[in-house]
TrEMBL record:
Keywords assigned by UniProt, alphabetized: Membrane, Transmembrane, Transmembrane helix
Protein family membership: Belongs to the acetate uptake transporter (AceTr) (TC 2.A.96) family.
Domain of life: Eukaryota
Species annotation: Chlorella vulgaris (Green alga)
Topology of this chain in the membrane: Multi-pass membrane protein
InterPro entries: Gpr1/Fun34/SatP-like, GPR1_FUN34_YAAH, SatP
Places the protein is found: Membrane
Any one Gene Ontology cellular component term annotated for this protein: plasma membrane
Descriptive protein name: GPR1/FUN34/yaaH family protein
Stretches that traverse the bilayer: 61-80, 87-105, 125-143, 150-169, 181-202
Length: 242
């Protein structure tokens, strides 16, 4: 058999594997830990101000990180997920990266008095809509793992808690209390993202699962056990192929 015939045969076999749903391990690094860390740290900073744990100016500090770590780094992670043919990771990371950059630039323009003060009803609508977007993404996590699924569900609740607290007045009123509760809830969401990102990073670095994420069952032969790596189930062996 000539070399050209061998190459053609190899290409045919690789295509057969792809058609059967077995994905070749991607040559690119897993961007999920970067995206999750960017999201987690920036979220935790903002919730410091919301919960009253830190000074109100911490919100502006969070916006600085929103431009780059929570925003740009997370958006880049989404673009890299595109290279890995991971549609869910691309949509999630690009969406939240764009969210942080949008929030950061808007807050900056308001502080510079180029824009007027944030309208309460508009702020509430924005947070409510992001809660809906996150809830819809949560509906696409039933083939991932318990940690990732909980991250998106708890994040959708966080957006709605924050929306309910918009327009908080004096300490002790209902909206102010809800905002403080949302701040504490946000720390839990950030901790979940840190855990998810660390579990994915340690698995990539050490070559095996160190922190459990409790994978969920595949849906329609597709599993996304780790946030940044798409897998397909071999119907004959009933195992997951990388």
């Amino acid at each position: 058999m000539s070399s050209s015939d061998s190459i053609a045969l190899l290409a045919q076999r690789l295509q057969t594997l792809i058609d059967d749903g077995i994905k070749i391990n991607p040559a690119t690094a897993n961007p999920a830990p970067l995206g999750l860390y960017g999201f987690a740290l920036t979220t935790a900073l903002l919730q410091g101000a919301k919960s009253g744990l830190t000074e109100p100016g911490t919100g502006e500090l969070a916006m600085g990180f929103g431009f780059f770590f929570g925003g740009l780094a997370q958006f880049v992670a989404g673009i890299l997920e595109y290279q890995r043919r991971n549609t869910f990771g691309m949509v999630a990371f690009c969406s939240y990266g764009a969210f942080w950059m949008s929030l950061a630039i808007y807050t900056t323009l308001v502080s510079a008095e180029i824009y007027g003060p944030t309208p309460s009803k508009g702020d509430r609508l924005m947070l409510t809509l992001w809660g809906i977007v996150t809830f819809l993404l949560w509906l696409c996590t039933f083939h991932t793992n318990l940690v990732t699924s909980w991250l998106f569900f708890s994040l959708s609740l966080l957006f709605w808690f924050l929306a309910g607290g918009v327009g908080a007045g004096e300490p002790g009123d209902a909206r102010s209390t809800l905002t403080k509760f949302a701040g504490g809830w946000g720390f839990m969401v950030a901790a979940t993202a840190f855990y998810d990102g660390t579990a994915s990073l340690m698995k990539d670095v050490y070559g095996k699962s160190i922190l459990p994420v409790f994978p969920l069952k595949p849906v329609n032969r597709v599993s996304l056990g780790d946030f940044g790596t798409k897998r397909f189930v071999d119907p004959e062996a009933q195992t997951v192929k990388a």
